[in-house]
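Let us begin with a simple case.
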Amino acid sequence: MVQKYGPHLCILLGGACWGLLGLFNRSLLAGALVPRDVALIRNFGGLLALLAILLLFDRSALKINWRHLPWFLGTGIVSVLLFTLLYFSCQQQCSLAVAAVLLYTAPTFVVLTSAVLWKEPVTRRKLAALAAAFLGCSFVSGVWSGDVTVTVQGLLLGLGSGFFYAMYSIFGRYALAHYQPMTVTFYTFVFAGLGSLLVSDPRRPAAALTADSRLIWPALGLVVVSTVLPYILYTRGLARVESGKAAILASVEPVVAALAGVLAFGEPMNVWVVLGLGCIVVSVYILR
């Protein structure tokens, strides 16, 4: 039972950890930081944390064949960094609901790309789970319950964020054919972390954290709980689950984010959140 469903559980737990990101993001953004600063803290902090873990417990995981660097450029720059930048930009152009729904076009990109590259079957069950997961994400985002704002540029940015988000499952699968999950996760953040230094001035978040020590805890939570842990869990699950299924299972993220908002910030639990939760549960059950 554990051997069969363990990888699925890793992916679900990884998605749940990603769903907690808003708990830490809100505190950091309220502390005079901008999205690029938060992305730098997340990506470069993730790099440092993973490096410390591997130096202490498994230095062998640091060894790679340099000919495989393009795969890690794919997971780190193409996926993690570009997805973050495009998603934050989309939020500036469109309503948050629209940005969230466009981001969760990612499982569709994964399913279609996996079918072309690895001949993963596009079954009725997988399509049904995909539809249920996307519908659930749209319910949770609130796109059906109020006014939304959309621009052409925002639409393209949102679709781009979904595409780049999906690419982690694609590049990651190539890398996992040769390396253990910890190696893939670490080198992903080597490139995501160093790339973040090129788009944000590290002096700004450093000054903010120094000036207000209360920001250190949400920064640590962002790095450990919503970056390092979920990427390790998701990558471990991806090593043994079809890319398309993994992407659909990770759609539990927005549901956890909505529940976290209810419990931590007193946001209302409305019928749309409940419907979204039900749809995500259905999608997971279909893929059992």
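The second case is a distinct protein. As before, the sequence precedes its structure tokens.
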Amino acid sequence: MRITIVSDVHSNLAALEAVLRHAGEAGALDGVWCLGDIVGYGPQPRQVLARLADVGARAVGGNHDFAAVGKISTDDFNPDAATAAEWTARQLGPDERARVESLPEVIEDDTFTMVHGTLRSPVWEYLYSYEAAAAHLERQKSPFGLVGHTHVPMLVVEGQEFPNGCEMYYLEDGRSFELPAERRLVVNPGGVGQPRDGDPRASYAVYDGEAAMITLHRVEYDIAATQRLMEEAGLPRWLIDRLAIGR
């Protein structure tokens, strides 16, 4: 079993298609897991929702998803994010709204826990700090966790030998690591539709169940095409420009 793990697609169909194509060529489409923020920021929310439905994606909801259907307020969003959320809300039909509204905040099984932010605050908290990582791990019952929200690919490994009880590692393109039997960890596959680590390429991960391994991948996509659609939609300038610089 080879699973494609995506997060923060943010209505960027060109980036999602590039990821699915790359994953398919590598034989990694036995399943797709999505860690939230399917919509928001980008120009094609309905198409992205439909594409993930086409591949039978197993998904949790993120703050931008729930903002687009009124489940949470945009009061804590920056002005550009709030504008994009309001625009996204106007694009969704009844079927898309129902699909987004039904997304769970957490999916948990015996092996993996999926959440957008952290288990302490599933929709809002960024897993950036040791304190947030430790709080998340305290609540993680499964051996392995998957999170999104930061748009930065990262590995968190639990261990008493670390001063903070865990260590955090940035994941580069092509980095593979085995899933250990003796300690818990958390993986962030980075952002598909709006990376924020200075690399504008779409980011995703592949879980190989037989090898008990996860590999991080970066994929180029037609950024200019997405930017043109955003311009036509009248979305904020900074959201358009940031795609080219990965910020």
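The radius of gyration is 17 Å. The CA atoms of residues 9 and 193 lie 4 Å apart.
Keep these points in mind for the review questions at the end of the chapter.
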